[in-house]
Structure formats: structure tokens, C-alpha cells
Amino acid sequence: MFEPITIKDIAKALGLSTSTVSRALRGGYEISAETKKLVLEYAEKINYHPNPIALSLKERRSHSIGVVVCEVANNYFSQAINGIESIAYSRGYHVIITQTHESSEREVVNVQHLASRSVDGLLISLSSETQDLSHLKYLHEKGLPMVFFDRVTNDIDTHKVIANNYEGAFSATEHLIKAGFRRIGHLTSSPQLSISIERLEGYKAALAKYKIPFNPDYLQNCMHGGMIQEEVEVAVKRLITLPDRPDSVFVAGDRLSTGCLISLKKHGLKVPSDISMAGFTNSDYAELFSPALTTVRQPAFKIGQIATEMLIQLIESKYPVTEFETRMLDTELFIRESSEFDVSVEN
């Protein structure tokens, strides 16, 4: 069994007390230069490293950050996690990643597990099912630092980092309108999610600007954000079997965009000749899709970095933080083949 070298081992080897060795390793001013040199040289010789668990118990800190996301395989979240890790590790924090798979029950279990592991703080993007926030409110009230990113809530007063979802949705919908489309469907996630609300508002605002009435039948929600393909196929079928079928669709999620393309193909519809499409996705393969997909891209990596910086500020603050901010980053629209207008399509 592996047994790490301890301060006691050094003290015994050098004939010193453990407190003297401890002070020498910490650079205590009350220890003579000669003793410090002796202890440090011996520690280096035997490759001694302080026990991080013992240190965390002493400091009451674990130097770890808990991350709660719906799915690591989601392009947006994988990029955000890269951003989180780039800051956390450079600042001496480990990152523990958990996935909810869009389940509120799993989110509760994950958050409780991370809290029991004594993480110093939490970075959270809510699951599509989450409506009851009591598990987070309890920890927040107990003083556990937390920062929300992407999918946020107004019910807990702390830092938040989001993309400009309204503007991203507005620009994608306006692009479809300017391309000649008037019957624009909207495929989105669960209605209570902050990103769903903001993107729906942007979609509606673009329609209103061009005096196109909002048709409730054109709005389809997928409660699990595209993680269940059958759910996407049901929603897409509802759209394409409407008497006045949409001539295009604006998709408001990463998973939903690829799921929608798959579903349209299954139903024998070609993009963009039968129906055009624009969607939120951070997939690096959007250009390689057939056709290349018109996308709204979020600065996921930067969002992850900023959220982590904000969390570490909360963790390391010597005084209680009472003023919080919501940072909003711009999205970018990339226009490709999937949103082209086919003159043979009746409008």
C-alpha cells in the first residue's frame, strides 16, 4: 500500500520536532536560516510534497470547483468546459464535472454530491426539467459560492454569464425573412428555460418588425432539448404536417439543430429545397453538414472562462459579496446553404 512521506518522517530523520519542520517548510521567520536550508534540502532530496487533503482540511478549502451541465458531448458545453478548465487549473483549482442529462432529479443528486465533496464553489447550467430551485437556494443561503452560466435563474442573486440569446434569435429569424421566407417555424427546448424564453422573444420580435403574425402552431417545444431524438421527430412531424406548412425553421439549440436535420431527412424533406433552416449550434462541423448549416454561434469558451473568473473571485473574497452582475456576450451569425431561398417553393 502506498504511504506518502509526512512531516513526521522528515522530523525523525533530521532529529527535529514536527512543528519545527512544518514552520521551516512554510518559511516561518522564527526558524533559523540554517535549519530552513537543512529541512528544504532534505525535503527536495526525498521528493516530499505536502498532502493536498491535509492542507484542504486545515484551510477548510478543497481547491476544487464543481460543474453542473446537461451533457459534456454537447458542442456548446464541451467548449465551455474547456474555458472553465483553462482558468481553473491556472489558478490552482481542480474541476469536477457532472452531467444532468436534462434531468432535474439528477441535477439535485449531482449538486448534493458536489457539496458533500466540499467543493469551494459551483458553476451551474440548469437542466431543461428544473423548476424547483430549493436544492440550490439552500446551499446559496449557507454561503456556497455559485455562478450560473448559459441557463440561468433570476431567483438566486449571484453572478451570471450568458450569450445575447435575444439578438442571436432575432438575427437568425431576420435573415430568414430577408431571404424571402414568411412561414417560419420555431423548434426550441422546454419553455421555462431562460435560453428558450430569450430566443423566443428574439424570434417574435423579428416577425413583428416585418409585420408577420406569430403563429402558435409554428412553435414546438422539445422538453429534453434534443437529447431524445424521438421527441425531436414528433415536434418536426407536427410542423411539417400542418396544413400551411412552414417554409423554413429557426432552431434554438445545439442538439436540436442536428436532430432536426436528421428528422427532416427521415421524412423525405430536403434542406433547403423543401424547407430551409437556421439554428443555434456551436458544432465545428456545421460547414460539413449537407447542406452546410446556417448557425448562430455562441462564445462558449469565453463564457466558461468569465464564469470561472467570477466564481474564483467569490471564493477568494475576504468579505461577503453583495453586488452581482450578469455578463452578456454577443453571438455571431454564419450564413450558409441551409437557409437559401428556393424560388420553386410557393410562399
Automatic annotation (TrEMBL):
InterPro entries reported for this sequence: Cro/C1-type_HTH, HTH_CRP, HTH_LacI, LacI/GalR-like_sensor, Lambda_DNA-bd_dom_sf, Peripla_BP_I, RNA_pol_sigma_54
Residue ranges constituting the HTH crp-type domain according to the UniProt record: 1-44
Domain of life of the source: Bacteria
UniProt entry tagged with the keyword Transferase: no
CDD domains according to UniProt: HTH_LacI (cd01392), PBP1_LacI_sugar_binding-like (cd06267)
Gene Ontology MF terms: DNA-binding transcription activator activity; sigma factor activity; transcription cis-regulatory region binding
UniProt-listed Pfam families: LacI (PF00356), Peripla_BP_3 (PF13377)
UniProt keyword terms in alphabetical order: DNA-binding, Transcription, Transcription regulation
Domain HTH cro/C1-type: 5-49
Keyword Cell cycle recorded: no
Start and end residues of each HTH lacI-type domain: 5-59
PANTHER family assigned to the protein according to its UniProt record, in alphabetical order: HTH-TYPE TRANSCRIPTIONAL REGULATOR GALS, LACI-RELATED TRANSCRIPTIONAL REPRESSOR
The protein's name: Transcriptional regulator, LacI family
Organism, scientific name: Mucilaginibacter paludis DSM 18603
